[in-house]
Amino acid sequence: MTFKQLEALYWIARLGGFAQAANQLHTSQSAISKRVHELEQLFDTELFDRSQRTARLTEKGEEMFVLARKLLEQRDAAIEQFGKPGVVERRIRLGVTELTAMTWLPRLVGLIRQHYPKVILEPDVDDSLQLRDKLLADELDLVIVPDTFADSRMPHKVIGQVRSAWMCKPGVVPSPSNGAAMRLHELARHRMLVQGNNSGTGRAYDAWMKEQGVQPADVIVVSNLVALTGLTVSGLGVSYLPRECLQPLVAAGMLAVIDVTPALPVVRYPAMQKGEHRSALTSSIVMLAQECCDFTRMFQAQGEEEKKEYGRPAPA
Q: What pLDDT, on the 0 to 100 scale, is given for residue 85?
């Protein structure tokens, strides 16, 4: 019995077909079929019910699947514990939100390639809700999302935080004549561009405004951060946007920061993984993410070493 045979059975059962398992393992469908056939010959028992159109395990196949999962997990743990980082070979599916992808993700990719050159990293950029659901469905190994989606089934560690501010096109919201900060309920009279409940930030700020007793009358939901920024720059309304990384647009006169009281709360970003799939490798990647997490500047290059205060992890 070989690990390749066990991997074939495991991924067929997990993904629902021989073709999907072949794609996962970067091999041919005929190779996957051969491995399963060898396993069935070894134990002289059918592991898949071939009377069904889908790849469904037999009762003995279910037992073998449980055994395969345990043995593969033990193999991965042994490799990570005793192998040198440079020889660890694994695919890591990392889910991040748009803001991470637009700021410090390239630095994280660079650090992972530096420490684990044989690890294949597969970033997935999506909204927070979709990333959370993909993690629970075992479609991702690790996600970095706002802590609005923290879940007891997914151990998490805060690696950074984002400070946002209300912004608009200059002139869309006149400054109070007395120079005082604008009250939140006054700002809510203007059209608001918000991110909606699929976004961790959108969900956090929607709940926060309800706590303040504020219900905007005119709202446009824009889930995409680039589109949200563009619509705000165009003068369509006011929106909450990450303050530090959009400072160049403020300096260029394309956006204006609105002084509003009470101020928007900070949104913390934890790295989350499923409890039963925690490993030394994913824990190391969380530490690398904590090291380079910096939401204050857009499009950071690989190899950057400098760090600003707001990019440092918040106290747990």
A: 63
pLDDT digit string, tens, across residues 279-313 = 778 888 999 999 999 999 999 987 664 444 334 44
**Cα 30 from chain centre:** 34
Q: What is the pLDDT confidence band of residue 82, given thresholds at 50, 70 and 90?
A: low
Q: For residues 159 and 144, is the Cβ–Cβ distance under 8 A?
A: yes
- pTM of the full structure: 0.71
Cα separation, 95 vs 112, in Å, equals 15
Residue 243's nearest CA partner among 222, 257, 223, 231 is: 257
Q: Any idea of the CA torsion for 70, 72, 75, 80, to the nearest 10 degrees?
A: -110
- Main-chain dihedrals φ then ψ at residue 282, nearest 5 degrees: -65, -35
